[in-house]
Design goal:
Blueprint: E1 5-9, H1 12-15, H2 20-33, E2 35-39, H3 51-54, H4 56-72, E3 77-80, H5 83-95, H6 99-106, E4 118-121, H7 122-130, H8 132-138, E5 147-151, H9 160-163, H10 173-180, E6 184-185, H11 204-220, E7 225-228, H12 231-239, H13 241-248, E8 256-258, H14 259-266, H15 284-293
Parallel strand pairs: 1-2, 1-3, 3-4, 5-6, 5-7, 7-8
Helix pairs in contact: 2-14, 4-5, 4-6, 7-10, 8-10, 11-13
């Protein structure tokens, strides 16, 4: 499909390392949806997540340098699949609007940032620029009523004055996109609860306890998969499954997909293109259920043979 919308693309550190499958699925889905992504040249870490706790100006400078790179591309909009990166970029842009802060922060940069770049999450541009209805029209292999718990985490829509997207307490964007692909999003009251985020490094028990509760509730409501839009959430819920089981005494078999992976499957993309094999908890059972429920493609009617 020819591009409908175009953004500078800031993948962030996770998507070029531990979450390479997220990056692969974002790029693959973008091609089908007509979203042109131009990767920011020579991008660097935005400081997510701890930098602002140490030095607010250094944190802003790390982000501002990347925003300068976006400006040098001749663009004023950038997208990142990582909510933490988006929050950092948006916060830096807001802080740099204050003269004194901008002057002291720009002294840390080779090139000053003068503002004017808007950062959005990839979830936001799929929901707002493409939309559920247009997505539905492109579906080739519906998700066959797969029951999902859409988990947004605590950063995708928070804080409201920074992220300016969806509802702070009851976001629905991911639910509606998944529904357009044929899935069945369930009422999930933990959709914005914290999974422990980066606290998993200094305090592993925080992540195992909080992530365990999220998985437990997802199972209780009958979900067949958890769906996320954050690389850190996916890591805590998927990669740490053994640690969660050791801490809680219960092992959850639920797979944790990136929302782009399920959208990609519905668009007819292959598991290889979407990095499905990189998931730690096997999604085989969920994929088998979808395959069993999906009707076979209609065969063209053949003319009757002449006798």
């Amino acid at each position: 499909m020819s591009p409908q919308v175009s953004y500078a693309y800031y993948p962030g550190c996770s998507l070029h390392a531990s979450s390479a499958d997220y990056d692969a699925s974002v790029v693959a889905v973008s091609r089908v949806l007509g979203i042109e992504l131009a990767e920011v040249p020579d991008w660097t870490c935005c400081g997510s997540t701890p930098a602002h706790n140490i030095d607010s100006r250094l944190s802003a400078a790390l982000c501002a340098r990347n925003l300068v790179q976006v400006r040098k591309m001749g663009r004023d909009q950038v997208t990142s699949p990582c909510p933490s990166c988006v929050a950092n970029l948006r916060t830096a842009d807001m802080k740099m609007a204050h003269k004194d802060f901008a002057e002291s922060t720009n002294r840390l940069l080779d090139e000053p940032y003068s503002g004017g770049v808007t950062a959005k999450s990839f979830l936001q541009i799929v929901y707002e620029d493409i939309g559920p209805q247009a997505l539905k029209e492109l579906v080739r292999k519906p998700l066959a009523g797969l029951k999902v718990a859409a988990y947004y985490g605590c950063l995708t829509t928070r804080p409201t004055h920074v992220m300016a997207f969806d509802s702070e307490e009851n976001p629905v964007s991911m639910d509606k996109l998944l529904e357009a692909c044929g899935a069945k999003p369930l009422e999930f009251s933990f959709k914005t609860e914290c999974c422990g985020a980066s606290m998993a490094v200094p305090k592993k028990e925080a992540a195992t306890t909080l992530s365990g509760k999220i998985l437990e509730l997802a199972e209780l409501i009958g979900a067949e998969a958890v769906v996320v839009a954050c690389p850190l959430c996916q890591m805590n819920l998927d990669l740490r499954r053994g640690q969660i089981a050791a801490a809680t005494g219960q092992y959850s078999p639920l797979p944790v997909f990136y929302f782009t992976q399920l959208i990609g499957l519905a668009l007819g993309l292959s598991k290889e293109e979407l990095g499905i094999a990189k998931l730690c908890v096997s999604p085989a059972k969920a994929l088998e259920k979808m395959a069993a429920k999906t009707p076979p493609p209609e065969q063209p009617e053949r003319p009757a043979k002449e006798i």
